[in-house]
């Protein structure tokens, strides 16, 4: 009787430890899958905007739910410019061609020594 | 902000690649607001959309149009939107975090409040 009780107990213990191992294996697999998805999405965030946009077109709201989207995005889009760096010069056409420059373009460097410059980068959409 | 600091700072929109064009990553809010534009493929197309933007949003300061190869946007890592303040010495005084999360005009206003002081004092003296 004592032997059969101890055999039953050991069967229960064996079942529990097998279940525990299975759960651990499943957990590790899920963790690896999440890690791979995270790395893949971070890679996508570092791609040119049009490439990243195509990823998001197919991914929908899932990345916002699964990942720390905002902090990943801010990190991926840091860029190389820092406060204190010389702002890269550029010459761009003015909308409506109505600038002081008759050619209708503006060179950023032409504003040096005159005023501060605020640049608001963006688009309508 | 523009009205408050225009004596001290030249404000420019730099119009760049669309954030949510209809042919790529469309947003429901744009559909609701009827802001529906495909990705411009020529400089003229981008200028047309920029003109509509400036008119509809009543933007009072000048706009510059980035080249269709997005050269300036790449240099400034500006997509989808970003704010910069550049000193009269040509150095960056403020760079916002990447938009949309980092596009916070109040942070630019705080930087302007400090950087614009010498210019506004000079304007007051000249008056």
Could you explain how this protein is built, in words?
The complex is a heterodimer of chains A (125) and B (127). By secondary structure, chain A is mainly α. Chain A is 54% helix and 10% strand. Chain A has helices spanning 2-45, 49-59, 62-66, 69-76, and strands at residues 91-93, 105-107, 116-122. The radius of gyration of chain A is 29 Å and the shape is rod-shaped. The N and C termini of chain A lie far apart (78 Å). Mean pLDDT of chain A is 89; it is low at 98-102. Chain B has 127 residues and is an alpha+beta fold. Helices cover 40% and strands 15% of the residues of chain B. Chain B has helices spanning 2-5, 28-33, 43-56, 71-76, 105-115, 117-126; strands spanning 9-15, 63-65, 82-86, 92-95. Chain B has a two-stranded parallel ribbon with strand order 1-2. A two-stranded antiparallel ribbon of chain B has the order 3-4. In chain B, a hairpin with a 5-residue loop joins strand 3 (82-86) and strand 4. The radius of gyration of chain B is 16 Å and the shape is elongated. Classes of the chains: A mainly alpha (125), B alpha+beta (127). Strand 3 of chain A pairs antiparallel with strand 3 (82-86) of chain B.
Largest interface: A-B, 48 and 75 residues
How is the main sheet of chain B built? 2 strands, parallel
Gap between N and C termini of chain B, in Å? 21 Å
Number of helices of chain B: 6
Task: Please give the largest β-sheet of chain A.
Answer: 2 strands, antiparallel
Radius of gyration of chain A: 29 Å
Average the pLDDT over all residues of chain A and give the rounded result. Answer: 89
Number of strands of chain A: 3
Class based on secondary structure composition and strand pairing of chain B: alpha+beta
How helical, in percent, are the residues of chain B? 40-55%
**Total number of strands of chain B:** 4
Quaternary organization: heterodimer
